[in-house]
Write a structure and sequence with these properties.
With 305 residues, the protein is an alpha/beta fold. 35% of the residues lie in helices and 17% in strands. It folds into two domains: 123 residues, 3-Layer(aba) Sandwich (Rossmann fold); 164 residues, 3-Layer(aba) Sandwich (Rossmann fold). The strands form two sheets. The protein has a seven-stranded parallel β-sheet, sandwiched between helices. The protein has a five-stranded parallel β-sheet with strand order 2-1-3-4-5, with helices on both faces. Bound molecules: 3-phosphoglyceric acid (3PG). 3-phosphoglyceric acid (3PG) binds next to loops.
């Protein structure tokens, strides 16, 4: 079988070496399309691929139409909002992700962004500390749990809300469980977003919700920009000059957050999972899942069931 790794944002070399070893151990052939700039390159490369490993690369109906032999797409990472699941199902293509494999990398970046924010973006002025502050974690999945673990090391008071995770499971991790998203924003000094981008969550981080943050509140977003109602957050930050927004996702081009100098920062390119370790973990997991799919028909991580 031909397994194509198509990544506009490439994996670290060591991760590619690991993927290659797994693919060859499974008796398959590896093809690489890295740093491509045009969709046409992807459409051409997928023509004879039986399996596809991607990151945030878009796989839509056009890509699936071009990929006549494709049986499985593995998104090496957590969020699979970049794959058209309905189109994949219609094309009889299995879609999987590799949950948890890059969670620590994203969680560590949360604290990179937070220290940067509370120290005034290193502008030389006196800042504040994270010790003793209340951190609210919205969604207690793999990333949220890693954020909680690291927050405890900083001596933070940690709270979480997750509509799909029982309170007991949150409390068992030594985190205060709150009853609602509203309660989380009312309680925390800092809220960190770890919700996926779904029809339910898109634009859900809006004016009314963020306005519940206490004075000096910080919103940190290492999830997706789509979960933010950007026009409403812009309006709120104009009105509330005490709020800060730090993100691992550039907002839409027409959302002028740059006007909030000293209260806003976004990484130029999504960096959360951009570590050698995360690339290796997620890439090798993807290759192993593909081997298991072709060998045993295993679809344990399928997300388009
Ligand atoms: C994920 O959903 O796993 C992260 O956002 C990482 O995305 P990336 O592979 O594009 O860095």
């Amino acid at each position: 079988m031909k397994i194509l790794v198509a990544t506009e944002k490439p994996f670290a070399k060591v991760a590619i070496d690991g993927i290659r070893s797994e693919v060859e151990a499974g008796g398959h052939e590896l093809a690489l399309l890295e740093k491509y700039t045009e969709k046409a390159q992807l459409l051409d490369a997928v023509k004879d691929a039986d399996a596809l490993i991607i990151r945030s690369d878009k796989v839509d109906a056009e890509v699936l139409d071009a990929a006549k032999q494709l049986q499985i797409v593995v998104r090496a990472g957590a969020g699979y909002d970049n794959v058209d699941l309905a189109a994949a199902t219609a094309h009889n293509v299995v879609v999987e992700n590799t949950p948890g494999q890059n969670a620590n990398a994203v969680a560590e970046l949360v604290f990179g962004l937070l220290v940067f924010a509370v120290r005034n973006f290193y502008n030389g002025k006196s800042g504040t500390e994270l010790l003793g502050k209340k951190l609210g974690i919205l969604a207690f999945g793999n990333v949220g749990r890693n954020v909680a673990r690291i927050a405890k090391g900083f001596g933070m008071d940690v709270y979480a809300f997750d509509a799909y995770c029982p309170k007991e499971a949150i409390e068992a991790a030594g985190v205060h469980a709150v009853d609602s998203q509203d309660a989380l924003f009312e309680t925390a000094d800092i809220v960190s977003l770890h919700i996926p981008a779904t029809p339910e969550t898109k634009q859900s981080i809006n004016y009314a919700l963020v306005n519940k943050l206490p004075k000096g509140g910080i919103l940190v977003n290492t999830a997706r920009k789509e979960v933010i109602n950007e026009p409403e957050l812009l309006k709120l930050m104009t009105e509330r000059t005490d709020l800060k927004y730090v993100a691992d996702i550039k907002p839409d081009a027409d959302a002028d957050f740059a006007q909030f100098e000293g209260r806003y920062f976004a990484t130029p390119k999504k960096m959360g999972a951009q570590t050698t370790e995360a690339n290796t973990n997620a890439g090798i997991a993807a290759a192993k899942q593909i081997n298991a799919f072709f060998k045993e028909g295993c679809t344990k991580f399928q997300v388009n069931k």
